[in-house]
Amino acid sequence: WDGRFGLVICTDILMYSPGPARPTGGAGAVAILIGPNAFLCVESPLKCFSNIDVYDFYNPTLRGEVVGYPVVDGKLSIETYYQLLDECYEGFKKKFKQAKGRNFSLESDVEFSAFHSPFPKMPSKALARLVFGDYIDSLSSPSCSCSFPYSVPSEVSKKVSYFLSSPSSHETTTTKPSFLDKELERAFVQISKQLFEKVNEPSLLASKRIGNLATGSLWSCLYSLLASPQFRQKLGGKQGGETNGVGGERRILMFSYGSGASASLFSFLLYKTDTEEFDQSFPSFERRLDNRKQLSPASFFRLFDGAEQAIEKLGEEKENGKGNLCGELPVHGPKKGFFEPGDWFLKRVDSQKRRAYEKFMPAGS
């Protein structure tokens, strides 16, 4: 090692056109430092990837300079998410058995999990999908040493058996029965509820409070997990707490998804369990979220639409001082608490659409 670290920054802004999807949008950035002696280490032999060419979410046109609203096929996007999750999970379980010499178990081999979260309910459905896949596998291999650990109501079992007996008569996403059947989906969300609350719910603070960070979605979920009281409680102090993992392994299961579409399922092993170090590395994330400036939806979109309209006019105007695009936001925003000392904000755009930024440094800071 030559002493240099790797730095990965995942950042995005997701803004939908007016409609029911708009409240799920979000914006943010996550910076990741890669180097030796890390407290999280990737289990390289277990990584799995899957890809498909599909128009589930795309941006066909640009409206102005501020934003190009995406086109989303919600049903297709969820179906594709499930398909790639299925394929990655099947590969992950095969690689796990090759590497460890035993079957993988969500119940005993996963300490925590994090999923790409386009909306807060999706991770619970994704985890339920994995449990559903394990149930299908247990039916096809009843003698498997890794028996299915959850109780399945008889009416749910009958419905799954019906799907398996005539899969060609039902819409499918993969070789498994379709999980777009709402009754089946709700049933397995309920079956996996306790597992979800234990391993996945602590990762959802950013998804619930910020929205969909797109590129940064999975990594904001990981940050939420590491900053959560549940994670610290599970660590149990300098000596480390109890672990789910067989042989003392402490594993975080991660699922990354990008429309178009590409996905990966991989895992981290946790090697350091000193809660004091985590307290220094992860200050109160929730407190920082609470300190944000609150705006009503109407006020937010009025500012956004004003900025967009101002930029669209730049091509028609000469540079005459009217290029101060953000109207009241950069001038009055810092006084109203929009920015913290050291934050950079967009000050102006000239007639050539060149942007000028300024650091907010209030008097006395």
Features of the shown structure:
Peroxisomal Thiolase, Chain A, domain 1; 13 helices; alpha+beta; 5-stranded mixed beta sheet; single chain
Description of the structure:
The protein is α+β, with helices and mostly antiparallel strands and 365 residues long. The chain has 2 domains: 6-290, Thiolase/Chalcone synthase (Peroxisomal Thiolase, Chain A, domain 1, 3-Layer(aba) Sandwich), CATH 3.40.47; 298-359, no CATH class. The protein is 37% helix and 17% strand. The protein contains 13 helices and 11 strands. It has helices spanning 74-100, 106-109, 122-140, 154-165, 182-191, 193-199, 205-209, 217-226, 229-235, 275-281, 285-290, 297-312, 328-332; strands at 6-14, 26-34, 40-42, 48-51, 57-58, 71-72, 112-115, 251-258, 262-270, 344-349, 355-359. Strands 3, 4, 7, 8 and 9 form a 5-stranded mixed beta sheet that branches. A two-stranded antiparallel ribbon has the order 1-2. A two-stranded antiparallel ribbon has the order 5-6. The longest helix has 27 residues, at 74-100. The relative contact order is 0.14. This is Hydroxymethylglutaryl-CoA synthase.
Please report the total strand number as a whole number: 11
Biggest sheet layout = 5 strands, mixed
CATH superfamily of the largest domain: Thiolase/Chalcone synthase
N-to-C terminal Cα separation, in Å?
Answer: 40 Å
- Proportion of residues in helical segments: 25-40%
Backbone CA Rg: 23 Å
Shape descriptor reads globular
CATH secondary-structure class of the largest domain:
Alpha Beta
Task: Figure out the total of helices.
Answer: 13
Number of domains: 2
Structural class: alpha+beta
* Mean of pLDDT: 81
CATH topology of the largest domain: Peroxisomal Thiolase, Chain A, domain 1
Helix and strand succession? Answer: EEEEEEHHEHHHHHHHEEHHHHEE
Low-confidence stretches: 169-175, 237-241, 323-333
Q: What is the CATH-assigned architecture of the largest domain?
A: 3-Layer(aba) Sandwich
Keywords: Transferase
Domain Hydroxymethylglutaryl-coenzyme A synthase N-terminal: 1-38
Domain Hydroxymethylglutaryl-coenzyme A synthase C-terminal: 52-358
GO molecular function: hydroxymethylglutaryl-CoA synthase activity
